[in-house]
Amino acid sequence: MPKRWRRLIVLGSFGKVGDMFFTDAKVYDVETKQLVTSASDKGKGVESILASQIDNIGTEITRRLLSDQRAKPSQIRVAEITTTSVDATTTFSRQDRLREVLLE
Fold first, then answer.
1. Which candidate, 12, 46, 64, 97, has a CA 20 to 30 Å from the CA of 89?
2. Residue 1 domain-assigned?
3. Quick check: is 2 in a domain?
4. pLDDT in tens, 19-45
C-alpha cells in the first residue's frame, strides 16, 4: 500500500434524550489507533438519523479528511436511496446477517 494511503475505520454511536437523537462518528487510523477526526449531529425523531444526520456527518468527515472546506455534500442523500425507517433498516440487517450465517 502506498505511504500516502492510510487504513481508517469509522466507529459510530447514537443516543437519545427525549425526542432528540444524537449521532457521533469517530475516524481512527487502524495502524496507530489514533483518532483522526470526528463529527456529530442531532435531530428530532429517530427518522432524522437516516434522513439527515448520516449525510451531514459524512460531509463533515469528508471535508476534514480532505482538508478542503470546498468539499460539497453528496448529490445523493441516504434518504433518497434507502428508507428513513430505522425499523426497516434493522430488519433488513438482521435478515442479511441470517442469510450469511445460513450460507456459511
1. 64
2. no
3. no
4. 999 999 999 999 999 999 999 999 999
